[in-house]
UniProtKB/TrEMBL annotation:
Gene3D superfamilies: 3.40.50.2300. It comes from Spirosoma endophyticum. The keyword Chaperone does not apply. Residues 16-141 form the Response regulatory domain. GO terms for biological process: phosphorelay signal transduction system. The modification 4-aspartylphosphate is found at residue 73. The lineage of its organism: Bacteria, Pseudomonadati, Bacteroidota, Cytophagia, Cytophagales. This is Response regulator receiver domain-containing protein.
Length: 155
């Protein structure tokens, strides 16, 4: 491991990525791919919008508990629920700076445009198969972990 990778691993230790995904099979694949590409990060799974809002609310007791990133499945199971949750996060005075990456099986241009309209930071069409997830998270890690400087939340 090179010096930069070592420094970034240490920098992100005890950090969480919140995954909002209503399909347990998809969560299983995402979790394993995240463990391979983000071994120093805890992936937290929420399966619906209400659970996610309660989790984020609980994190406000100690702002350092807020996730570093949120991976949000658009269809929870309807896209309107995903957009509603995205809008809630992006308009909330404490959560709006959290990067939200929308994940979806859909490559529909309207889904993509609407996700950006509600201030999603990125839109990723879900890869098919574990190897494609690993490849996706390799690029994802390079951009969101190594290249981008994200805000820090402190109490």
């Amino acid at each position: 491991m090179d010096k930069l990778a070592t420094a970034n691993t240490a920098k992100h230790r005890n950090t969480t990525i919140l995954v909002v995904e209503d399909n347990a099979d998809q969560w299983f694949i995402i979790r394993w791919a995240l463990q391979q590409r983000f071994p120093e990060v805890d992936a937290i799974w929420m399966s619906d919008a209400h659970q996610t809002m309660h989790y984020l609310d609980a994190c406000t007791q100690d702002m350092r508990e807020l996730p570093r990133l949120i991976l949000l499945d658009l269809y929870l199971p309807q896209r309107e629920i995903g957009w509603s949750l995205l809008q809630f996060i992006k308009t909330h005075h404490l959560y709006r700076e959290l990067p939200v990456i929308v994940l979806s099986q859909s490559a529909d241009i309207e889904d993509i445009k609407e996700s950006y309209f509600y201030r999603g930071n990125s839109y990723i069409v879900k890869p098919s198969g574990y190897e494609k997830w690993l490849e996706c998270f390799t690029y994802f890690r390079h951009y969101w972990w190594d290249a981008v400087t994200l805000p820090k939340f402190t109490e």
